[in-house]
Every structure is written in C-alpha cells, then in structure tokens.
C-alpha cells in the first residue's frame, strides 16, 4: 500500500501526552504531512471541534481544568475508581476501574471505539498535572468481568511500573477505591474494514493494543469473512508471559539485547514486588496469556501467537517476520488495507522494528519507514507505528 492510501485508512491521535486539548489527525508511515480526519456520524467524538495547543516536552502541564463529566469523553476528565490491582508480573499489574458516577452512555462510547480499532485513554496525575496514555483491554471470554460490570462501564488496563516513571509509579501507589481521572477515547489506529491479515509485533505492554486489534478485527468474523491475526510478543522476562506456547517453532537466535535498556532492570525489585512475584509463581499461566488463549479458542484458526524472550536470547528478527509474510496467502497482496503490520511497544522497540515516530509542528507523526522491517520485501503489507 502506498503512503496516501495508508493515510486514508489509519489514523492516530497525536501522542501529545501533555497536550491541553484533544484532536485527531491522519498520518502515514512515509510522510510527515498531517491531514484532517473526515467526521464520521457513528462516532460522536469524531466530529468535535478541534483546537490544539501542543506541548511537546515531557512534563508539560495539563491546563485543561474543565468540569468533570460522568461519561468518558475526549474533552474533559471523567472520574473512575480503582476496583483492583492484580500483579501480572513483578513489574506489571492488571488494573480494573469503574466509573465513579453512573452513566448509561459509557458502554456505547467504548463500543464505538472497539468497532474502529485500537484506542487509548489518557490518565491524569493530579499532583504533577501530567497525563499518560493507556490502552483498555477488550472484554473477552477469558475476562473476569461480569455482564453487569461490563454494562456499568468497567475498564481493565495492563500497566507496567516504570521504576523512574511519574505516572506509572503513581498508579501503582494508589489505594483500592482511589479516584483516577481519564479522558478519551483516542483512536490510535482505525483497522480498515478490508483488513484480512494483521501481523502485530508487540513489545512488553504493547500487547494491550494487540489484544484490542485482535478483538476489533475478529469481531467482524462471519461465515464468509474470517480475518486472521498473528502476534509476535517479545518480553524481557519469562514471568511476563508464563504459560505462553508459541504456535510457530522458534529459532534460537543470539543477538544484541534491544530490550535490556528500554524495559529497565528488574534488579531493584521491591519487597512488595517480590511478594507479588512469589504469588505469581503459583499461577501457571499469566493473565495476558490467558486472554490470548481465550481469543484463540473463541476464533479457532484465526489467531496465532509467538513468544520471544530476551532472557532466553530469543528475539524477533528479520527472518521471523519475513517467514511469516511469506506464509500468508498471496492473492491478498497489493489489495489496499488487506494486510496490516502494527508495531507497539517501548520507543526503542518501535525504532528498531520500523524506525522512530517523528515530531513536527508540535505533532507526533509516523515518520519514514525504517528499522529491520524496511529491509524486507513487504509484498503489499501496510505498516503502522502505534
Ligand atoms: C497510545 C499509548 C498507549 C499506551 N498504553 C499503555 C498501556 O496499556 N500500558 C502501559 O504500561 N503503558 C502504556 N503506554 C505507555 C504510557 O503512556 C507511559 O509512557 C508509561 O507508563 C511511562 O509513563 P511514566 O509517567 O510512568 O514514565 P515517565 O515519567 O514518562 O518516564 C518514562 C521513562 O523515561 C525516563 N525519563 C523521563 N524523563 C527523562 C529525561 N528527561 N531524560 C532521560 N530519561 C527520562 C524515566 O526515567 C523513565 O524511565 C502507552 C503509550 C501510548 C503512547
């Protein structure tokens, strides 16, 4: 797919994590020109007037002090309560949040976003007045949410605690029942209705958008339409993906560890984290692996996952990606939107795979395709950096 067709298919809110107003834009993997997004009648938040004052540096203040709303919306912050925080590994947890005040409309807001593709919300750190984006997990067969909780607008998040990170540390320090303010949805990538094949390359918590992409894509399954998603999920430590079994035999490769610097070190694990880790050792399958397995059993033959572990010197490389590309049906080649490679994870991970995103005029853009994927014969696959 060429850059202009990609730009008309995928859209992403600029990740102005500290921006004072929400806006949407289109961009492509090979151009730095943002375009306006056409309003869609289905999505109430799409047509909202767009006024952006960008603040591009980490730590800039959120100046939006609009009154809180009962329903999640991109303009004002909505209060949620922390229902639970369960460790997934020594460095990450599953957060369950529910709207602080009742609203009949939250469910519809989420549904609109799920239909489009990959989306996020921004959490506010009230003392520092800064915000960070996080990715709601889809509700699947493996999800421990009741129908009532779902209807009430509960949301779940898989969040890594960065030992030096302002907002992730704040979130991990909150007591159960504490308020968390968020705004959104922010569409990160619309998955075109033509899409039949998604190759999702995820690093660490980048698996959350992969689950979203899978959920959104596979929900479109009919007798005639059976889209597929293959996920490469790279983790630094085994405990991050306990119980995960790769669907493709994985070649043992030893390369420079591109994860070590970017996922941080686990050596400074606190005693609380150690306790959480010990309780995890009792569980044979991590919660995220269960979610992936749930998708697989719900859509047999349409979901495959390969796990890569830094600590076992197994990394996602050119060979793994090109082998997968070569294995997909050729008739889909060169049909715009049919085949999509999505890459999500820490900045260094994205740069290594597809080159960095770039900032221009206070907006974050896709930037040119670089990294190891640029060196492959993509055979019509479009690429999107999340
Ligand atoms: C669309 C989107 C969705 C996301 N979804 C998720 C999700 O579902 N789960 C999840 O865990 N994360 C997710 N993230 C990442 C998340 O938004 C945060 O970036 C992450 O939690 C770290 O934020 P923080 O405030 O804790 O760390 P920050 O305070 O932003 O710090 C991050 C790192 O940078 C270092 N650093 C900060 N400032 C400097 C500096 N001046 N010089 C050198 N180093 C510096 C810090 O030491 C730290 O290691 C998502 C990001 C995006 C853009």
From TrEMBL:
Keywords of this entry: FAD, Flavoprotein, Membrane, Oxidoreductase
Domain of life: Eukaryota
The keyword Flavoprotein appears for this protein: yes
Gene3D superfamilies (UniProt xref): Nucleotide-binding domain of ferredoxin-NADP reductase (FNR) module, Translation factors
GO cellular component, one term: mitochondrion
Entry cofactors: FAD
Residues in FAD-binding FR-type domain copies: 75-192
Any one Gene Ontology molecular-function term assigned to this protein's record: oxidoreductase activity
Binding-site residues, FAD: 132, 134, 167-168
Keyword Membrane: yes
Subcellular location per the Swiss-Prot or TrEMBL entry: Membrane
Similarity comment: Belongs to the flavoprotein pyridine nucleotide cytochrome reductase family.
Protein name, per record: FAD-binding FR-type domain-containing protein
Species for this entry: Penicillium cosmopolitanum
């Amino acid at each position: 797919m060429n850059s202009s067709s990609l730009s008309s298919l995928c859209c992403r809110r600029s990740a102005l994590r500290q921006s004072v107003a929400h806006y949407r834009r289109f961009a492509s993997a090979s151009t730095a020109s943002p375009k306006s997004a056409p309003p869609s009648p289905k999505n109430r938040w799409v047509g909202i007037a767009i006024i952006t004052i960008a603040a591009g540096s980490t730590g800039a203040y959120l100046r939006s002090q609009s009154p809180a709303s009962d329903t999640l919306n991109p303009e004002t912050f909505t209060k949620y309560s922390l229902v639970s925080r369960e460790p997934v590994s020594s460095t990450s947890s599953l957060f369950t949040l529910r709207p602080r005040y009742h609203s009949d409309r939250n469910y519809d807001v989420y549904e609109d976003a799920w239909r489009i593709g990959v989306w996020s919300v921004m959490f506010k750190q009230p003392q520092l007045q800064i915000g960070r984006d996080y990715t709601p997990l889809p509700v699947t067969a493996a999800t421990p949410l009741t129908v009532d909780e779902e209807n009430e607008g509960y949301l779940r998040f898989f969040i890594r605690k960065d030992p030096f990170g302002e907002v992730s540390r704040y979130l991990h320090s909150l007591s159960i029942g504490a308020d968390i303010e968020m705004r959104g949805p922010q569409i990160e990538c619309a998955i075109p209705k033509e899409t039949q094949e998604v190759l999702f390359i995820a690093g660490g918590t980048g698996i959350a958008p992969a689950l979203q992409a899978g959920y959104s894509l596979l929900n479109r399954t009919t007798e005639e339409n059976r889209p597929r998603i293959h996920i490469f999920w790279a983790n630094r430590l085994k405990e991050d993906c306990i119980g995960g079994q790769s669907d493709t035999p994985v070649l043992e490769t030893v390369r420079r560890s591109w994860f070590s610097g970017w996922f941080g070190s686990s050596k400074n694990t606190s005693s609380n984290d150690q306790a959480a880790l010990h309780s995890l050792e009792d569980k044979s399958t991590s919660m995220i692996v269960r979610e992936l397995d749930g998708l697989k059993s719900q859509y047999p033959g349409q979901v495959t996952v390969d796990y890569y572990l830094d600590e076992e010197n197994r990394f996602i490389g050119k060979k793994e990606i090109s082998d997968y590309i070569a294995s997909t049906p050729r008739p889909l080649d060169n049909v715009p939107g049919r085949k999509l490679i999505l890459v999500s994870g820490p900045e260094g991970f994205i740069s290594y795979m597809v080159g960095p995103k770039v900032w221009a005029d206070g907006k974050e853009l896709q930037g040119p395709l670089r990294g190891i994927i640029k060196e492959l014969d993509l055979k019509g696959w479009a690429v999107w950096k999340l």
